Amino acid sequence: QVQLKESGPGLVQPSQTLSLTCTVSGFSLTSYDVHWVRQPPGKGLEWMGGIWGDGSTAYNSALKSRLSISRDTSKSQVFLKMNSLQTEDTAIYFCTRSGYGGYSDYWGQGVMVTVSS
Amino acid sequence: DIQMTQSPPSLSASLGDKVTITCQASQNINKYIAWYQQKPGKAPRLFIRYTSTLESGTPSRFSGSGSGRDYSFSISNVESEDIASYYCLQYVNLPYTFGAGTKLELK
Known about the structure:
By secondary structure, chain A is an all-beta fold. Chain A is built from no helices and 11 strands. In chain A, strands 2, 4, 5, 6, 9, 10 and 11 form a 7-stranded mixed β-sheet that branches. Chain A has a 4-stranded antiparallel β-sheet with strand order 1-3-8-7, with no helix packed on it. Chain B is mainly beta. The interface between A and B is medium-sized, with 22 and 24 residues.
């Protein structure tokens, strides 16, 4: 069945770079898109960006200068890298599979990332 | 970027009530709106896509409607398991954008 699982450090220091991995199973990264969505504690959802089946990417305008999404199709993994982290980047980070059209139909469990010294 | 104005931010309902949440887009989104339910500590779950198409497993008491810039999501006969937060998402244009969310509570 379709599964996504995020992994990465739980704690990142301010000004450092966040690196997260989303490992997927049950579908091919060349046939489906994978998006990243984050949620600060007690707040709403924010679409961060995604990588399409053809390898193209798109990003949230507010994060574009700091964010990079890539993948390794042989390992069924998608990577998120975001630099210059600040405390307001503290959030649960979800990776999701996008169905035909752009909406996310499957979600990982999420990984909590705290930005603190 | 398309802005999604979701209201109300919170909603209090009794069991059996009908409730409606709305999302207004800053431009025509041609029905490309999805609705998610999120319970505390859990990932969001897709309930409705393309305005009114229920996902497999979504109870029939949930419905969606709308066109152009204005969309709504309704729950008829609220049940205790429906207590959660709900979010709309526009996926017509990149970057995709979520509404701010609506927290449904029991009265």
